[in-house]
Amino acid sequence: MDIHFNVMIFEGNYRPIHLKFFNDKDALKTISDNDIPCFKEYANLAFKFTSDNPEDKLYMDGFEFLNDFSLRKDITGHMYVSPSYNKIVLYDGNNKQNPQVPFIPGYYEIKVDLSNSEKFYSWFKIQPNHLNATDWNRMQEEIESIVKGLANTFVRRENAFSRHIHDGFNDLFLMQKIDIVQKHLNNIRRSLKGIEQNPRLNIRKKYKWVKSFEKVIIDTKTIMQHSKHPEKKDNIYSAERYINYDTPENECLKKILLYFIHFSSESLDYLYKLLENLEEKYSTSYTHPNSLQEEIKSVNKSIDVIKRLRSYMQNMYMLDWMESIKEKGNLGVSQTIRMDSRYNYLFKVYRLLHDKNNSLTLSNEYQYFWKRTDLLYEIWGYIKMIQIIQALGYDAKDGWIFDEKWLGKQYLPFLNDDTTVQFNKDDITLNLIYNSEMPSKSEDTKPSKPLYSKSANRKPDIRLDIFRVNEYVGSLILDTKYRRLNNILLNNYDFYNHRSTMEQLGNYKNYPESIYFLKDKPDFFRKGSKPVSEVWVLYPGSDDVSQSIVDKIDLEDNIKFIVLRPGIDTEELSKKLEVVINEKIQYVSYGSV
What we know:
- By secondary structure, this protein is α+β, with helices and mostly antiparallel strands.
- Helices cover 39% and strands 20% of the residues.
- The protein is built from 14 helices and 21 strands.
- The strands form six sheets. The protein has a seven-stranded mixed beta sheet, with helices on both faces. The protein has a four-stranded antiparallel beta sheet with strand order 2-1-4-8, with no helix packed on it. Strands 3-10-9-5 form a four-stranded mixed beta sheet, with no helix packed on it.
- The model is unreliable at 159-170 and 491-499 (pLDDT under 50).
């Protein structure tokens, strides 16, 4: 496909780098890290965007923090540039009159929207000057570690609970294995079919004495035996060739087949008992019949999958040539197994099922976000808030990895927009909401999603809705900014883009309303009361910004800037959150007096 635009990045006086673009966003995941253009932190950077069509637009992470009159805002509020032969400066450390703040180390995506609605994607990387592990590496590691830890704790707890409510017929880890089979079944079938049609084999010789007049094969072993046994002059020691299937690969295959057959029987026993239990509950239950019906449908689907698996394995095991294969004790893996994709695939699935730890893995959707540093910081910030809330003694009850719909799955779900995790402690309920847009009208709200806003800024990264005995008592809004504080505050009242960032934060605090907030309180108490009393801005590091400026914004606007990055103790943040929750509850309780 011909691309009629060009993007070049200039680093100091070096030769410009022409970025390579893809029209499929998923293709970005396949780029080797070594092939992503990399620039040092604090390097002077600029870029040039040219195109045959002046209506094309280029978007880039971090545009909202730049000071350049070439930047425009589209109808959604995102900043872009049009094609031009002029350079756009990203950072120039030598320009003291118009200082720019260097980009934080990480990955930055560039998107080009063509006038014909086609979209193209690329990115570049800012490498830190220091050599130690970068924040985004540690955020990725923490996300994997924390999410798996939270999920495994939830699984163990729910497994014990589910065994009780399902009369012992719920083995979540066995269900995870069944889910693995379901994902791999078609490739298992193809691998077995390929082996059946062309198994690994070799040709061997079996020697015996035969009459000399028979047509025989004569080799060095024949001659040697004749010299040793002259008395057998009327016979010949001859080789008979035969096909040998008893190879290391097939010995391994036979053990895998036996394991799958045993696993199928065990799984079917469990699934039939579970099905019987669910059907009995469905026939007598007056609550959640649709949910039970879905469970029954899911179990029947699993039964069908395991039946097919057993059929494939048994048919293979019953082939005539399988009888000649010795049963193997320990499952050693030869190099030829790894080189033969058919055998190797079966071995890999066997390893997945045979793994007693059966470790959970993250959804493949995370792979793209490992390199989107700003979005990675959003996800990491949300997960850290889950930990902080749990540290206050709240129990995660529902939502995301704590949703019972996920139980029994091998892959941890991705953190999608509108994800809500619900926490409970005594009579208090907290809903932690990720990247959810508030409606613009009150009639589109409901008790569980009580906020609306008439502002253009209605989609904060994180929101905490607080309830006491099902009464909505207020919210805390948090926004993540993977930027230096200078980027947000520098010359705030001079530059339009910087002003819009602070304007966004102010809109998060001033515009949200709720018909459920203080709805049973007297008018004089409701007057002037807002469901959102403050906004927290989470950012990764401190800068040379006067503390007096930060304190002034906190005092005048109730916008608090809080440093949060890997390795920082969150105890102080936890205390601040507890104070906010208690103040919200006390305020509403006071209004009831």
